[in-house]
TrEMBL record:
<dbReference type="InterPro" id="IPR035892">
    <property type="entry name" value="C2_domain_sf"/>
</dbReference>
<keyword id="KW-0862">Zinc</keyword>
<dbReference type="InterPro" id="IPR011993">
    <property type="entry name" value="PH-like_dom_sf"/>
</dbReference>
<dbReference type="InterPro" id="IPR023152">
    <property type="entry name" value="RasGAP_CS"/>
</dbReference>
<feature type="domain" description="C2">
    <location>
        <begin position="6"/>
        <end position="157"/>
    </location>
</feature>
<protein>
    <submittedName>
        <fullName>RasGAP-activating-like protein 1 isoform X3</fullName>
    </submittedName>
</protein>
<keyword id="KW-0863">Zinc-finger</keyword>
<keyword id="KW-0677">Repeat</keyword>
<dbReference type="InterPro" id="IPR001562">
    <property type="entry name" value="Znf_Btk_motif"/>
</dbReference>
<dbReference type="InterPro" id="IPR039360">
    <property type="entry name" value="Ras_GTPase"/>
</dbReference>
<feature type="domain" description="Ras-GAP">
    <location>
        <begin position="226"/>
        <end position="436"/>
    </location>
</feature>
<dbReference type="GO" id="GO:0005096">
    <property type="term" value="F:GTPase activator activity"/>
</dbReference>
<feature type="domain" description="PH">
    <location>
        <begin position="491"/>
        <end position="598"/>
    </location>
</feature>
<dbReference type="GO" id="GO:0046580">
    <property type="term" value="P:negative regulation of Ras protein signal transduction"/>
</dbReference>
<dbReference type="GO" id="GO:0008270">
    <property type="term" value="F:zinc ion binding"/>
</dbReference>
<keyword id="KW-0479">Metal-binding</keyword>
<dbReference type="InterPro" id="IPR008936">
    <property type="entry name" value="Rho_GTPase_activation_prot"/>
</dbReference>
Amino acid sequence: MLDALPPAVHPRNLDALLAGKVWGWAAMAKSSSLNVRVVEGRALPAQDVSGSSDPYCIVKVDDEVVARDLAPRDISGTSDPFARVFWGSQSLETSTIKKTRFPHWDEVLELREMPGSPSPLRVELWDWDMVGKNDFLGMVEFPPQVLQQNPPNGWFHLLPFPRVEEDSGGSLGALRLKVRLTEDRVLPSQYYQPLRELLMESVLRPAEEYAASPLAVLEELTSGDCRQELATKLVKLFLGQGLAGPFLDYLTRREVARTTDPNTLFRSNSLASKSMEQFLKLVGRPYLHEVLRPVINRVFEERKYMELDPCKMDLGRTRRISFKGAPSEEHVREVSLGLLTGYLGPIMDAIVGSVGRCPPAIRLAFKQLRQCVEERFPQAEHEDVKNLAISGFLFLRFFAPAILTPKLFDLRDQHADPQTSRSLLLLAKAVQSIGNLGQQLGQGKELWMAPLHPFLLQSISRVRDFLDQLVDVDGKEEPGGPARALVPPSVTVREGYLLKRKEEPSGLATRFAFKKRYFRLSGEMLSYSRNPEWQTRSSIPVSHIRAVERVDEGAFQLPHVMQVVTQDGAGALHTTYLQCKNVNELNQWLSALRKASAPNPDKLAACHPGAFRSAHWTCCLQAERSAAGCSRTHSAVTLGDWSDPLDPDAETQMVYRQLLLGRDRLRMKFLEDSNLVTTPEADTEKGSSATEGACPDALAHQREAAAHLLEVLADLDQAHEEFQHQEQRKVALRPLRP
């Protein structure tokens, strides 16, 4: 079978999203994204990346089979494979999968490269050894012209290193790849301002104008996967503007207004449901980790056998781990019940005791949601609907999925083995039942869950009290509010070793100017010392931070360097340079520092991406140390440990692209057909909003909003065309090489 596989076109490859060349005029950024997916049987949807000021590569190793028939390098007849991914001068490694020749990865790695000649994408597989050198397993590589002109799709031999001419004969195994090249252009910020203002105005209009909102039009034009992607971009865009609360309130009011059966409220994948779900994942990630991680770690470490379903019980397994002979189903059920409640108890204790740790932005969003539902369904028989609306999001779409697949929520580095996965599934089912507040308990096909019902019923009453406390919060959301909520003052949000540059390392070689220090970041302080136990610590108040930016690799001839610009009481600026071990770590520290310092006033609009060395700035060659910065800063709030900071321009560009897909439908639906109009009350449960005989005033509002939106889209179209023509003229005027 392997002999029939085509060889890689130059050894090397894995699973990636590669952004190609970026250049621009007047802050315009153009990025080419190459998505290389490693899959076993099907191509999975790819993550698009745009809006970067640098070309970058995201390597995603899917949780399908990504390599097969790897050479056994260990005495056990298996290997401990990991992948090294190279692009230009950058490289990253995946985690190591122990004792397998068929590794599964599910990681996202990001590589950044300065503009210049395109580079090949290379992936090497290695067998990790505790003692001695790692063993080479094979590699694949694709040159730039292949990535750009004929993206690979299929199985490829792993080839020997370093000579690609040698025939591996299929003995090193194979990888399956699918490559997709996309391109996008992010314009200067002022071109997106009209569309951004239009979207922001949508959530601030009075309720009677909801039908005329561009966001309502946007919701009509998307469905399925596109709606989920749109929800993520919109949540990030409104978070960056400090309007996440009004945005979610706007969507939930539309959803509630068009719902007639309270039992179906927020059960569909509407834009409101998807936006709230993404909001929880983005804003609540540190909170989720604090609540669930201790018990999740216990489940992974203890690996207890638990089963309540008699059809799935493995009595032979329980006999192998028992000294009392073959147990009965009843005995297995009794032991499993004790183990499950032993895990569920701490989980529920942590959840109901977490009111004070829940980010205020989430609590405010749930308070608005509850008020909206109470107004729509005030009847006594619908008393529980207000709680179900909140618990449906918090338990069914947040806690339960995180328990089921901890790796997807960064609770664990690896996926669970089959036995642990089954235990997590049972725990997730129990938490889901608690989140449903007892509805349909004892019904359906899973009657074998009945032994857990007493515990579940007891927990439900505690959850109702917890929800009451959760929404008992004062204050309204203000610009910067989400950032404050994301970083509690006393909580350590990130820590680890970094290399810190000495303040004035004159006379020292660059490699000696950086010293290893252990850093801790909280909402109040960035502190560092020689090691975690060292008593003497230096510190930088987070409130003094004015910018957190990347540093060009050429500044110190070192990769993965960032700068933290602070301002002292006298108004003087100071720059601290820190080097991370890889791009992923760099992005995570950038995200955490920007998030912690987001509420700070007097942020710098520009800074130097280089360093002041040899009496000039390496980036712009200005000779004055106090010269104004030459590069725009990224001062917007960032989310979690995501690799991408909130960038309003890039997010608006993505929304613009979504709108373009439905522009013709928008024109036909709202301008050419005089009998069609959108109103929340007229929407059906599936989101259809076309009605006949609409109120003339409502129709006029709808047409006005649609016409304004089309005008804004036309202006962006023209701007993109103008920049494209500039690019073509610049290429045409470029002198030919001899």
